Amino acid sequence: MSNTIRVNASILCADFRKLGEEINRCEDAGVDMLHVDVMDGHFVPNISIGQMVVETIRPLTQIPIEAHLMIEHPTMYIDSFIAAGADIISIQAECYGELRPGCRDLGQFPKEVDSIDAQKARKDILRIKGKGKKVFMVLNPGTPLCLDSVLNDLDGVMIMSVNPGFARQQFMPAVLAKIRDLRQRFRGDIEVDGGINATTAPEAVKAGANILATASYFFGAVRPKEIVQFLKRLGGCP
User: Fold this and answer.
1) What is the pTM of this model?
2) Model pLDDT for residues 164-184, shown as the tens digit of each residue
3) Which residue among 32, 124, 189, 193 is the active-site one?
């Protein structure tokens, strides 16, 4: 893994009244990836967008699209998001293990596990890779590093630095130790999602992250290109 930092713009905070213009703004700013947060109201306490938005974006840009499936049954939707044009499918580890007491029932959040069923997870991982797409596995803040059995199969790991479901949350510093630990054993991409800004981004990169997902920090900026340039310089690149 190089020290090149990639910027992943989460369209959750884009202006959907002019989504095409927002995608152009991402391109002009030098964004490397587009992050699509897919929420079902069951895995997280919110409902967002689906395959049609990915399908709408795909003809507008060559920027890789990441579909972050914050949904209870990702297996049912993997193929349709790939067909819609997603380049990266990110699946939550919590969908492949026994949920902890207190988050098993409807309306109990955040979802957390202590371990995953590697056979079940690998089936979806290989399904995604078999279609020529990249696969990331995502860990909620309260879920420990429990991916050793599938790490060699993954292109990346996304560390959630907020409990998923809503934008504009504050970064949880406790996840920095998880990033450091993961970087010691994993040479693939490590993405950090949640609360990334001028203060937290350097900490995440120092810990070992090389992909920074940004939503309100980017889309709320008057000069978004400067935001992207700042984030990329954290890796020592111009």
Assistant:
1) 0.96
2) 988 788 999 999 999 999 999
3) 193
d(CA 34, CA 23) in angstroms, rounded, equals: 9
Catalytic residue among 37, 117, 155, 181: 37
For residue 47, what is the DSSP state? B
Residue whose tokens read 């703004």: 25
Domain extent, residue 165, equals: 6-233
CATH number at residue 139: 3.20.20.70
153 is catalytic: no
Q: For the CA atoms of 159, 164, 169, 173, what is the dihedral angle to 10 degrees?
A: -30
Respond yes or no: is residue 193 known to be catalytic: yes
Any domain includes 44:
yes
Mean pLDDT of 6-12: 97
Instruction: Determine phi and psi for 60, rounding to 5 degrees.
Output: -85, -15
Length of the chain: 238
pLDDT of residue 38: 98
